[in-house]
Give the backbone structure.
Amino acid sequence: MSNESTQANSLLPANIAALAAYSSAKSEKLSGTTWLNANESPYAKTIQLSVEDLNRYPDPQPQLVIDRYAAYAELESENVLMTRGADEGIELLVRTYCESAKDSIALFLPTYGMYKVTADTHNVAINALTQAQLLNGSVDEIVDAVGSSKLVFICNPNNPTGSLTPLDKVTAIATALADKALVIVDEAYIEFCPEQSATKLINQFSNVVVLRTLSKAFALAGLRTGFTLAQAATLAPIRKVIAPYPVSGVVASIAAQAIAPDAITSMRRQVIILNALKAKLVQWLSESPAVLKILTGEGNFVTLKLADKNYFKIALEQGLVMRAFTLYGESDWLRISIGSEQELKQVKIWLDGLALPTASAISAQQEVS
């Protein structure tokens, strides 16, 4: 390590020096031809764009986007804060409501990794609970386990398991934690089961916050646009903390088109198609001897346990990129995003090939050759 690097590292706070960064699907630097690893939509959008006013600062919260998203979420505009992806919403909540080296957040593992990374960044402790506790425990047991945690993150549907916490249970948890903690419901995948949205709780509970994104069903992962939804009084301190110009004019223009009424209708049609394709994929997986367990759940993905983790290597060799996971202490889990019909046919070809020689035999043969 160079002397300059040593000097720079000596300036780091201990929590940042020890930080394990979040590993996104795209950070793994894999190569392939069929990409089903990041829960992206297979539908590309056609956008009309003008860039004539880039010499001017944008509106901090573009009113057209705010109004349209409020209408979509059946809320008032004062209940909507636009952010750079839902990830910024997570960061703003931790930074605004948690005191460094004092407070904690509660998570139900396994779940989305950025909750922990954000808390670690701000020197906020992790109260690591489990999805089993959330799904199977009583509300009293959950509240006891949450303890004094300031924020409670419920990813719903949960990534990567797809499990869904019933809305009545979310309601009961929010009721029990009133004036004690914010209950943050991350609804990145809610368009695939919209009837389960917690947005209908916002007018009733000042401690309910809903995170949304345009990255999944709205097919705008490359735009990095999200929304934090809550009562106006809950959002007020966050508005003090957020950057002065968090949303570029270009992003605002694209987002406004993406959530126009006709675009929302198109998104809902695409969701119907993707849910049908998911059902077909689940059927293929259930018939394959290469798959030991399937976590179907909700969302535009399926998580499964492979009979042999070498099967993932074979998929990569075929140009098929999916997301390998270590879950429950085991490294043979895989998450498959729901792509187009043609992309999923590549999964079928891979599965059918695995039913022939075993992966171990193939790997051994390749090592010999």
Notes: The first strand starts at residue 34 and ends at 36. The chain has a mean pLDDT of 92. DSSP finds 14 helices and twelve strands in the chain. Residues 131 and 151 are 16 Å apart (CA to CA).
